[in-house]
Amino acid sequence: MTSITSVELNYLVFRYLQESGFTHSAFTLGYEAGINKCTIDGNLIPPGALITFVQKGLQYLEMEANLSNNDVEMDEDFSFLQPLDIITKDVNQLRQMIKEKRKNVQKDRDKEKDKDKEFEREHEGERGRVREKERHEREKEREKEREKDREKEREKEHEKEREKEREKEREKVERDKEREKQPEELADRDMVMDQEDKDVVKNEENGTSVVGPEPMDIATTSAPASQEACEIPNSDVTILEGHTSEVCACAWSPTGSLLASGSGDSTARIWTIADGHCKSGAQNSPLNVLVLKHVKGRTNEKSKDVTTLDWNGEGTLLATGSYDGQARIWTTNGKP
């Protein structure tokens, strides 16, 4: 192993003093050690060379202290020592210090392991509580689902009961209707029988006995006095012009002189018919008419025909139905 000479060490110390700013100390050391006479090339010495050598020496001692005498591979961690301990103590003392440190480190590790085990037990207990809570939650959810199913079954049973009640109610209504019809039929039969009895008595008084025909149904409406055709003069006809296609439906308002008409031109119209006689032929003066458009823009589709319309009981609203699949309600002002 190569050793360092005193001249080299003095030069390293001299350079250290210069680099550290100790100018007077460096001058004194250089004068007394004859640094200016040595043959060392200062350009080859890197800055901080003394510090580097000292650190290397400390690391060497630290390595020596951590190594044991046998060749068995060490599993323990490398222990770092303080520089002052390395300088002031020998190798045996350093090894004793390392042994104590390793014991303390092992104790700390054992404590950490115990803490980890305790934490794991607590964590496992917490996980168990969480799992138990989740199990209870799932059980509650399943119980809710079962309760919903039972509620649906009860609702179905109630619906069946209600359907049975409705069926009984319908049967009762039918029976009541039948009972209401029976007195009317009995009264009709009694009326026919009374008439037959009267005829029999009359024939007996006249000395004849004639069996009358079978009873006929009693007509509730009287036949018109005359079945002759009636011709309406043109003076009584008013022609309402405005629709551009066939007129499908008409309806009089129940409360006013308003006539509603629906056509295949996708419009309905509300005509105001004045009181009095109709003029001959087409109207010479324009009628007051409101056009109710069922489509926007131009269209020739037959599916837009207004085929049905009707007034409400007060004559304030008009309902129309069209082939476009929509029903509409209009006011007498023509607003939907």
TrEMBL record:
Compartments (UniProt record): Nucleus
Entry GO CC: histone deacetylase complex
UniProt entry tagged with the keyword Repeat: yes
Gene: LOC110429327
Keywords per UniProt: Nucleus, Repeat, WD repeat
Any one GO MF annotation of this record: transcription corepressor activity
InterPro entries per record: Ebi-like, LisH, WD40/YVTN_repeat-like_dom_sf, WD40_repeat_dom_sf, WD40_rpt
Coiled-coil intervals, chain numbering: none
WD repeat residue intervals: 240-273, 299-336
Predominant localisation class: nucleus
UniProt feature, compositional bias: Basic and acidic residues: 100-192
Listed name of the protein: WD40 repeat-containing protein HOS15 isoform X1
Region (Disordered): 100-196
Pfam family, one: LisH
One GO-annotated biological process of the protein: regulation of transcription by RNA polymerase II
SMART domains: LisH, WD40
